[in-house]
Amino acid sequence: MDIIDLRSLRQLQLGIHPYSNGEMSLRLGSPEGQEIARSVFPREEAWDKVNTISLKLPPAVVDDLSPETDLYLVWLGDNGIAEDDMGHHRPADVGWLDWIEVK
């Protein structure tokens, strides 16, 4: 697998369609790693509308990125808690990520 050098990364823009209120978190190293950016978003009522959210990276974090750094997007539930509604929710039940733009 090729390594993608992310040292010039400043911001991610995401096109999302959330079925419920939630938060998107960008983390270093693992899904549970240090959080470096977060965006809160509301539920989208229209089935055909995709919302744009931005995750801006702090300059100090960008300066410390190395080519080996792994970044993880973590989709969290309302108030940062991903809830399992008695086992009925599947990942697609919270919504979907339509596109990512790297800036």
* Structural class label: mainly beta
Q: What does the largest sheet look like? A: 3 strands, antiparallel
Going across the biggest sheet, name each strand in turn.
4-1-6
Low-confidence spans = none
Q: How confident overall, as mean pLDDT?
A: 82
Count of helical regions: 1
Helix and strand sequence:
EEEEHEE
Proportion of residues in extended strands: 35-45%
| Total strand segments | 6
Name the quaternary structure. single chain
Q: Whole-number radius of gyration? A: 14 Å
Shape: globular
Q: Percent helix among the residues?
A: under 10%
Distance between the ends: 22 Å
Folded structure, characterized:
- This protein is mainly beta and 103 residues long.
- Helix content is 6%, strand content 41%.
- It has one helix spanning 59-64, and strands spanning 11-18, 22-28, 35-41, 51-56, 71-76, 95-102.
- The longest helix is centred in the middle third of the chain and has 6 residues, at 59-64.
- The two termini are 22 Å apart.
- The model has no long low-confidence stretch (mean pLDDT 82).
Q: What descriptors fit this protein?
A:
mainly beta, single chain, 103 residues
